[in-house]
Amino acid sequence: MQPRLSQGAADGRGHEAGQQDRQGPLNCYSSSKLILNKSFETNLEDLLKEETEAQAAARLHPNGDEGLAAFLEKRKTNFQ
């Protein structure tokens, strides 16, 4: 069982997580959320096709180039 956090500690962790999200590839986050929402009303085959298209679009986005470059150069990303 995990220890309980004080309200201040919990708020601080939430703020940190939010800051990390803001520095990430927002285009990918929004695409993932759309696909997740559709997953409740779409069959698997159609969902996988849409996921494939979203992955290709993410790779062609400038954030995709930055993510790949950062990985290959073993550095932190600088998403726009």
Describe the structure.
The longest helix has 17 residues, at 44-60. The chain has helices at residues 7-22, 26-38, 44-60, 62-73. With 80 residues, the protein is mostly helical. Helices cover 72% and strands 0% of the residues. It is flat.
Work out the strand percent. under 5%
Distance between the termini: 39 Å
Major sheet size, sense and barrel closure: none
Structural class category: mainly alpha
Q: Which residue ranges are poorly predicted, with pLDDT under 50 across at least 5 consecutive positions? A: none
Coarse morphology: flat
Order of helices and strands: HHHH
Instruction: Provide the helix percentage.
Output: over 70%
Tell me the total number of β-strands. Answer: 0
Overall pLDDT score: 80
Oligomeric state as shown: single chain
Radius of gyration: 17 Å
Q: What is the count of DSSP helices, taking H or I runs of 4+ residues?
A: 4
Summarize the topology.
Elements: H1 7-22, H2 26-38, H3 44-60, H4 62-73
Helix pairs in contact: 2-3
